[in-house]
Amino acid sequence: MRVLLALFLVLLNPYKEEREVVVTKKMITVSGQTSIGGFDCDYAKNSLKDTLIIDSPLKSKELVFDIPVQEFSCGNFLLNRDFKKTIKAEDYPHARVRVKNLKSNYGHYSCDLSVDIVGKKLHYKDLPLKRVADGISANLVLSFSELELEAPKKLGGLVKVEEELKLEFKLSF
User: Fold this and answer.
1) What is the mean pLDDT of the chain?
2) How far apart are CA 58 and CA 42, in angstroms?
3) pTM value?
4) In whole angstroms, what is the distance from residue 86 CA to residue 150 CA?
């Protein structure tokens, strides 16, 4: 009976032990589709000084990173220029991502994520995270209208960018 009670308490213990991991790389990828194909623009930053705290009993601990929008790369200078123009890099030179309240639950992770981009603040509470080989990642689907942006068109409207954008946030540790 004592063994059963001990097992029950271990499995249902609401007080998980806080863990720290050192973030070695932060990456954000913005993907979308056009009428002639897809595109991926990414920002990656190696980091050896950021610490991510998992299952912290204090809700105030967070990981914040600023993203210089000019450092996004889309593969070639034409796409880079169009992407930066579309997300108004001159008016909003930085984006900010905040990760807080990172929780684990038997191999599944979630966090509260805030994204400040193009002057808009987006908040996601208990966002499910996916465990990947070297860390965790989150996927969001946004629309140009949600960000109050206009989907770009080229060549008199022959080349159009679809309304949906996919954002992937990845933290490696």
Assistant:
1) 82
2) 32
3) 0.79
4) 8
